[in-house]
Amino acid sequence: MVTKAKVKTKAKVKKVVNQVGKRKTAVARVTIKEGTGEVRINKKPLEIMEPEVVRTKISEPLFIASQLPDVDIAGIDVAVNVKGGGFMGQAEAVRTAIARGLVEWTASETLKESYLSYDRSLFVSDMRNKELKKAGAKGARAKRQKSYR
User: Fold this and answer.
1) Are 96 and 23 in contact (CB under 8 A)?
2) pTM score, two decimals?
3) Over 66-107, what HEC string results?
4) Are 138 and 146 a contacting pair, CB within 8 Å?
């Protein structure tokens, strides 16, 4: 009696990296996977982001990574979802998330070092927040003035 041996084939596992970046009340979640080289923020291509300052700030980690000879980021798709905060807080959260994701994707220590030497906030989230308004006062620090005359 001849039995056929079952051959188990492993499905090819696609590499996916998820990371988070934060700034003030903005939270950016990035997903990096193999693809055609698209960068999308909230399902919009990076090329049509306005204002231009935001587009430049978001593309900084991609530019730095492309300048390094041992890092290849040509065939990856970057999809970012960002919520909360204003447009500059969102931009800084997005750049932190992208930088963290690229370091995890490439596993390159030189990329991490170049990010940290360029700007520490590229890799480390800036957790400073607006100070809360206090009860019985007009703002965070301003108190009610008294007059004794």
Assistant:
1) yes
2) 0.80
3) HHCCCCCCCCEEEEEEEECCCHHHHHHHHHHHHHHHHHHHHC
4) no
Tell me the per-residue pLDDT of 109-142, one tens digit each, with 9 for 90 and over: 888 899 889 888 888 888 888 899 998 888 899 8
Q: For position 123, what pLDDT does the model report?
A: 86
Q: Chain centroid to CA 34: how far?
A: 17
Contact 103, 123 (CB under 8 A): yes
Select 16-122's CATH number: 3.90.930.60, 3.50.50.60, 2.120.10.70, 3.30.230.10: 3.30.230.10
Encoded tokens for 40: 């999308």
- Residue 59, beta-bridge partner list: none
DSSP characters over the chain: ---PPPPP-PPPPPPEEEEEEEETTEEEEEEEEESSS-EEETTEEGGG-SSHHHHHHHHHHHHHHHHSTT---TTEEEEEEEESS-HHHHHHHHHHHHHHHHHHHHT-HHHHHHHHHH-GGGTS-B---PPPPPTTSSSSS--------
Residues linked to residue 121 through DSSP beta bridges, in sequence order: none
Quick check: 27 pLDDT over 90? yes
